[in-house]
# Entry
Amino acid sequence: MVFCCLKWLIGFGSRDVLTKASRSSNRSTSLVWRCCYHRTPGSFLDPEMRAFLEENTEVSSSGHLTPEIRLRLLTPRCRFWQERADLWPYGDPFWAIYWPGGQALSRYILDNPDAVRMGSVLDLGSGCGATAIAAVMSGASQVLANDIDPIAGMAMVLNCELNNVKPFPILTKNIIDTELDNWDLIVLGDMFYDEQLANSLHPWLRKCSRTHGTKVLIGDPGRPQFLGHRIHGQLHKVVEYSLPESTKQENNGLTSSIVWSYQP
# Structure
């Protein structure tokens, strides 16, 4: 089952496993996603890909922390919820799950629009794009969503349409360890699921913070890989949310999700 495989990978898998899984199932997306950075995403969404995503996801606004935001997600009523994982024709659809760290970040931004209003926001590992959408809804002046999966970028286009949000730029490549522009805020949810990835993120976030004074907010439901990482000693707890029952069931019994402020 696609969904069970995703739960295992995000909860317990290593980066090597993730890489192998992605390579084994990934097909070329060059025909449907013609550039990795764009400002008019609707014009780059191939009709066949749109039809595939609409057919194999369900529009959902319940069962998560942000009912204001409608998202195309993989739900129990979708075909691939129960199908064998190898039948999914693209890379693992992590974007099709609204992970609890992203839920907490999105809820916090919607409840505290001053955190982003008139500022620039980079949503790292954006997935379904919910946190970027929340930033736009809350008045951010500039939003960039980043995810290494080009299919995630296409899903974000559809999710912007669902929420009547002006499409924001989407960057579909790995930007960790690269030089960045001066962003007011970087948000990242559910990214500390693997030690190797966490070890790359930590010094990069520290550099962004110290070089540009960039604020960093991290969303995580308390995965062991995150709680045991050395970055945890430089975090300040901002807010904790109890997770809806359906999200608890989908995430191995995790009961809450926390927004942390990174203060190196």
